[in-house]
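[Meeting: bench + compute handoff]

Bench side (C.D.) handed over the final construct sequence. Compute side (W.E.) agreed to return the predicted structure before the next meeting so the bench team could plan truncations. Sequence as handed over:
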Amino acid sequence: MIDATTPPNGLASLYLRNRHLLVLTIIVIFVAGASAFTSLPRLEDPIITTRNALILTTYPGASAARVEALVSEPIEQRLKEIPAIKNVETTSRAGISVVAIELIDSITPSTNQPVFSEIRDRLADAAATFPPEVSPPFFDEKRGAVAYTYIAAVRWPDGAHDRLGI
């Protein structure tokens, strides 16, 4: 049982006995917080590294199996030769091939453009083997780099705080 005459133990007791230590601790915490706050980076639009891209290729009138054999597989084979690509996922449907690319995690904003340039070169090589009805591959590297913000607010209806006793 704790009564009011029992002195506090531990850290509280240390600070109650030594007021200078309490003031020093508060000052150190305040200075560290102010220093951290002033050194925080502030960007209106933060830089987001694009590590994902899509390649869309249309082959009007072709079945999914034909699109797979004549469009998706040549693209996939050429892309697998690039060491900076972590994952390649291909979807072949009637008339269209969709290839999703994920780059390795070590890619930075300064190194992703050379990789994308190499991907474009490999796509041009693969497109040379396509049948004449196939459109040139559309390389979309801009779609993946987005940042979303959700802002919400809560508002009491007028007079509601009186009814709740707040």
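W.E. noted at the follow-up: Residues 19 and 158 are 47 Å apart (CA to CA). C.D. will use this when planning the next construct.
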